[in-house]
Amino acid sequence: MLRQYLYISTAPSLSREEVESILGSSARNNPARGVTGLLLYNGRNFLQLLEGEEAELVDLMLRISYDPRHSGVSLLDRRNIAERACSDWAMKRILIAEPVEERQRLLEAELPQSLEPETRKLIVNFAVLN
What we know:
Layout: E1 2-10, H1 16-33, E2 36-41, E3 45-53, H2 54-66, E4 71-81, E5 92-94, H3 100-110, H4 117-129
Parallel strand pairs: 2-5
Antiparallel strand pairs: 1-3, 1-4, 2-3
Helix pairs in contact: 3-4
């Protein structure tokens, strides 16, 4: 059974290189684990969508919760899915550095169309508010 997790965390002091390192690790490790997803970072908080088998996601969330680079990991949503919304993305970084007025339009264009409406709303709200 495929699952989808959406979480936020706080990481206010990460450099661009550290964020790139996280993405690189995800790109290397996620395909072997059958994990796909997307990542937003606003300079202070992460919002990450993860997709895969339940056992893999539980293990990954445990490692994330113990990662000293961020804190306050909070699971926003966890659901069964029939198919992946991010099937082509081992871990896609979506940049949200544009002016707030542009974020929603740009994000809506980049997010997979198959995302559940509630999940899409949480992601867009995160990007627009931060």
